[in-house]
């Protein structure tokens, strides 16, 4: 009998029997992987001894030295570093009074204690080495005095002995089903941590350098910060139907309670949103949008679509995808656009008005007269049961294609509502601009002043009529436009509304000076559009139809 000094006196006080067994099982699994031999066997014999058996190449005396097994470094699918874990396991089992004997064709190895060579006062663990049985295939580790519960606890630390089903395999690891008791994370098949708030369990098989450094020798209760990035990568590259459907269905119930932890990760939540939108008609709305535009909630539902409420940060990412034209879902803006693209007015003939609606409708000329519009200058006015959807819940519109003011029928319920909507849309017709532009606000302010003066003075026919572009009586003379503004050379044109235009062919910027003194620039305008504007018989009409609303603009 020869003794091999393990150089261990007392270590790992916090290890229980199952922790020692875990290392032995890990070594057996690694040998099975490296040698490509039959699966390991863990069984109890008639004498009450437990056997952990692999069918590999057999353990040797040099495997008990304190070193790393070079064969395992960089090998796929292995769990540990043979040598350190085995010595720790033997020390832990000895502490708990378990007897271990290891059998292979290379020897029979048993644990014993002996004085350290030349130091009789120091007793350490030694391996007793005797000749092996040449008929033994692999390694048989025989354990005496080990409780059955410790064996079961040790086996539960390994994925191969658990009931998790593999849903998908990626280059970074596996997505697994979560058990009823909760989700778990494994690293190279060894239990790392419980994650009860996760949707899936995981087995990380591709470790980063930082992960290797962070993993302690115990490989248990590893913090989430160690593996969270890897789990995100696993889900990012997972395309299995079961994974995608589970993400989508869970995401669809996000308003019912707390979400699984994975859906708090922006990239994973965005993936779940895209998957949900493949099977359901989805409109995503941010928390701020639903606060500002609550009127659209019922409209979206009536359109047969599901509303998904996003945080502003999530919505930003969704908007970016929608702008690229790659979104299977609608944002509020794209939904409105899609509705409007397929929209048709449902016009109502005045013969079908109720008595009260008719009385209010017949006030139109009188209302427009308050701001100086004579009957022959009044644009066409139509009433519709429906209006194009917009983000401000509009009840009226100036439709430049129809060259008409459209008023929603509900506005005929009161004279105040009808008059306000009508004057607002007339201002759009006159200016050819949208809300919040300086020109539009200027005209609207004029209307407020005229109506107020009429109401206070009793004068119903104000002076200084306002007319729509290129229609009605001529506007009062306006000062000649400057030849140059900030170095921009303007070309005077003949128009009742437009004073002069200019074009920069290097930046493709169109400049327009109106006779009311306002000046605008329009970006990314083709030179052909500028040429057509110069040659147009009606500059105002061309500006309204071909330029306003089509190009980004600003004030000079």
Topology:
Elements: E1 2-5, H1 17-35, E2 41-44, E3 50-54, H2 84-95, E4 99-104, E5 107-116, E6 119-130, E7 139-144, H3 148-155, E8 166-169, E9 173-176, E10 183-187, E11 190-195, E12 201-204, H4 209-214, H5 224-236, H6 241-252, H7 266-279, E13 282-286, H8 287-292, H9 295-302, E14 306-310, H10 312-323, E15 330-331, H11 332-341, H12 355-361, H13 364-369, E16 380-384, E17 396-399, E18 404-408, H14 415-431, H15 438-457, E19 484-485, E20 488-489, E21 491-492, E22 498-504, E23 509-514, E24 519-522, H16 527-535, H17 539-547, E25 553-555
Parallel strand pairs: 10-12, 13-14, 13-15, 16-18
Antiparallel strand pairs: 1-6, 2-3, 3-7, 4-5, 4-7, 5-6, 8-9, 9-12, 10-11, 17-18, 19-20, 21-22, 22-23, 23-24, 24-25
Helix pairs in contact: 1-2, 1-3, 6-7, 14-15, 16-17
Give a brief description.
With 556 residues, the protein is an alpha+beta fold. Helices cover 34% and strands 22% of the residues.
Structural class: alpha+beta
Main beta-sheet annotation? 7 strands, antiparallel
pLDDT under 50 segments (min length 5)? 460-482
Radius of gyration: 41 Å
Measured between the Cα atoms of the first and last residue, the distance is 100 Å
Mean pLDDT over the residues: 81
- Please state the oligomeric state of the protein chains shown: single chain
Range of strand content = 15-25%
Number of strands: 25
Shape: elongated
Within the largest sheet, what's the order of strands? 1-6-5-4-7-3-2
Helix content: 25-40%
Count of DSSP H/I helices: 17
């Amino acid at each position: 009998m020869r003794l091999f000094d393990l150089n261990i006196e007392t270590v790992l006080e916090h290890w229980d029997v199952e922790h020692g067994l875990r290392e032995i099982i890990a070594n057996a699994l690694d040998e099975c992987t490296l040698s490509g031999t039959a699966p390991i066997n863990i069984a109890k014999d008639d004498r009450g001894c437990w056997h952990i058996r692999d069918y590999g190449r057999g353990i040797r005396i040099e495997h008990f030295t304190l070193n790393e097994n070079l064969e395992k470094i960089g090998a796929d699918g292995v769990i540990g570093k043979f040598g350190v874990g085995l010595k720790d396991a033997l020390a832990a089992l000895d502490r708990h009074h378990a007897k271990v004997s290891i059998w292979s064709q290379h020897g029979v190895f048993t644990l014993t204690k002996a004085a350290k060579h030349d130091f009789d006062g120091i007793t350490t663990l030694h391996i007793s080495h005797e000749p092996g049985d040449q008929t033994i295939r692999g390694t048989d580790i025989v354990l005496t005095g080990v409780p059955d519960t410790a064996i079961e606890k040790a086996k539960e630390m390994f994925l191969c002995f658990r009931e998790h089903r593999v849903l998908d395999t990626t280059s970074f690891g596996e997505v697994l089903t979560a058990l009823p008791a909760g989700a778990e994370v494994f690293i190279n098949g060894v239990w790392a941590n419980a994650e009860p708030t996760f949707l899936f369990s995981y087995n990380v098989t591709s470790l980063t350098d930082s992960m290797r450094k962070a993993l302690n020798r115990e490989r248990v209760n590893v913090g989430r910060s160690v593996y969270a990035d890897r789990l995100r990568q696993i889900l990012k590259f997972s395309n299995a139907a079961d994974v995608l459907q589970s993400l989508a269905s869970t995401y669809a119930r996000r308003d019912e309670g707390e979400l699984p932890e994975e859906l708090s990760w922006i990239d994973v939540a965005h993936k779940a949103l895209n998957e949900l939108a493949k099977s359901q008609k989805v409109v995503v709305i941010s928390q701020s949008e639903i606060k500002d535009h609550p009127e659209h909630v019922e409209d979206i539902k009536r359109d047969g679509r599901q509303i998904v409420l996003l945080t502003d940060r999530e919505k930003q990412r969704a908007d970016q995808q929608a702008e690229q034209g790659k979104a299977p879902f609608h944002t509020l803006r794209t939904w409105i656009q899609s509705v409007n693209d397929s929209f048709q007015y449902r016009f109502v003939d005045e013969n079908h008005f109720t008595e009260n609606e008719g009385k209010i409708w017949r006030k139109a000329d009188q209302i427009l007269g308050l701001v100086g519009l004579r009957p022959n200058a009044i644009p066409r006015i139509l009433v519709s049961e429906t209006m194009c959807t917009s983000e401000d819940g509009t009840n009226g519109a100036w439709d430049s294609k129809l060259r008409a003011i459209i008023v929603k029928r509900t506005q005929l319920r009161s004279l105040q509502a009808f008059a306000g909507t009508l004057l607002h849309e007339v201002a759009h017709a006159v200016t050819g601009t949208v809300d919040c532009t300086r020109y539009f606000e200027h005209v609207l302010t004029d209307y407020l002043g005229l109506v107020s003066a009429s109401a206070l003075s009793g004068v119903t026919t104000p002076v200084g009529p306002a007319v729509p572009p290129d229609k009605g009586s001529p506007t009062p003379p306006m000062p000649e436009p400057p030849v140059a503004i900030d170095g921009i050379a303007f070309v005077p044109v003949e128009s009742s509304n437009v004073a002069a235009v200019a074009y920069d062919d290097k930046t493709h910027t169109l400049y327009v000076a109106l006779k009311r003194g306002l000046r605008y620039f329009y970006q990314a305008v083709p030179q052909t559009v500028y040429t057509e504007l110069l040659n147009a018989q009606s500059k105002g009409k061309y500006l309204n139809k071909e330029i306003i609303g089509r190009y980004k603009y600003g004030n000079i």
